[in-house]
Amino acid sequence: MYDKTVRRRRAVLILLVVLSLLLLTAYFGEAPGGRLHGVQRDFLTVVSPIQDGANKALKPVRDLFGWVGDTLHAKSQRDELRKQADKLRRELVADQSEKRSYHELVALYHLDQLSVGEYHPVTATVVGKSPNIWYETVTIDKGEAAGVHLNDPVVNAEGLVGKVAQVASDAAQVDLITDSTMGVSARIGRSNATGIVQPKVGDPNDLLLQYLPANTQANDGEYVVTSGTEAPQFPSLYPPGLLIGQVTSVNEESAYKSVNVHPLANLHELDVVQVLTAGSGSRPANLASAVASLPAGQAASGTSGEQLASTGAGG
Predict the structure, then answer these.
(1) Rounded (5°) CA angle 250-197-119
(2) Would you say residue 135 lies in a domain?
(3) d(CA 294, CA 101)
(4) What is the predicted pLDDT for the residue at 69?
(5) Per-residue confidence at 230, pLDDT binned at 50, 70, 90?
(6) Does 214 map to a domain?
(7) What is the CATH number of the domain that holds 265?
(8) Is residue 28 part of a domain?
(9) Whole-angstrom Cα distance, residue 223 to residue 262?
């Protein structure tokens, strides 16, 4: 039974092939106006509207599949571009951070060569900042183990930052010059007249150089630097000539002249600082020890006893 079915199918296939060959031979052999050509034209006349209708009916479906494919491809490209953008952003941030640290370290190196040769600068990274605007402090990652001591001056490439207020083995707290507890003995440019720089009341981001003699000359834009003296209530013998800020205006409403000063150091964006440490037996250490042992009235050369009595300040 199975063999008969197979033979029958084969016979039908052979018959169809032979018939197709005959029709093709007759079609190509007859004239364009022949019967077979006429049948073809009639067939196309009937089928063409059906084909056009099917194409129009299926076009939205084809468009939908095309839109889905394009959307998936676009999403894939978008995700890949986002990954590349994130990677480039991370690389850019890392590069900018490295460049910033490099420039800060280079500037600190030049500072080493210029004004603090008698000190041993300890470079430290700021690892914490106080959010309190009246008690402005930062925490650094170097402490006693690196030779950092209480009251050591702290600087960056722009100028004076503050002094060490508390110290542990591997960290230290630094009071910034805008902290309400700070006071620094300072002078304007090359002037010998000494005053006290403290935070400006009501504006903790600016400073006030107070108790200058009435005849002190001060002009806007002049630099204010450390005088290299010390007073008992603000112990820290800063090296002379460290930049603190620039004069913005002068007040002459009292017996003593005062000057508004804007800090040069950007205290809100501190990343790298240097602690100016003085080893035992060094000139700065011996000088600080000698000043600390003097009576209070003599503890600030260049600042009169009357000024110290009226201000209780120094640095």
Answers:
(1) 135
(2) yes
(3) 41
(4) 77
(5) low
(6) yes
(7) 2.40.10.340
(8) no
(9) 10
- Overall domain count for the chain: 1
Query: Could you give the 3-state DSSP secondary structure of residue 34?
Result: coil
- Find the range with the poorest average confidence among 126-130, 163-167, 190-194, 275-279: 190-194
Q: Is 291 inside a domain boundary?
A: yes
pLDDT, tens digit, 9 for 90 and up, residues 150-162: 888 999 888 899 9
Rounded to whole angstroms, the Cα distance separating 91 from 185 reads 44
Tokens of 227: 């005088």
Helix segments in the chain, DSSP class H: 2-29, 35-114, 283-293, 305-311
At 162-187, the pLDDT tens digits run 999 999 999 999 999 998 888 898 88
How far apart CA 276 and CA 160 sit, in angstroms, is 11
- The domain in which residue 198 lies consists of 120-279+287-311
Across the strands, what pairs with 155? 160, 274
State the DSSP code for 242.
Answer: -
Using CA atoms, how far apart are residues 70 and 56, in angstroms rounded to an integer?
21
Q: Are 177 and 160 in contact (CB under 8 A)?
A: yes
Whole-number pLDDT of residue 299 = 43
Mean pLDDT, rounded, for 236-264: 83
Question: DSSP character for 297?
Answer: G
Residue 130's closest CA among 170, 175, 166, 161?
175
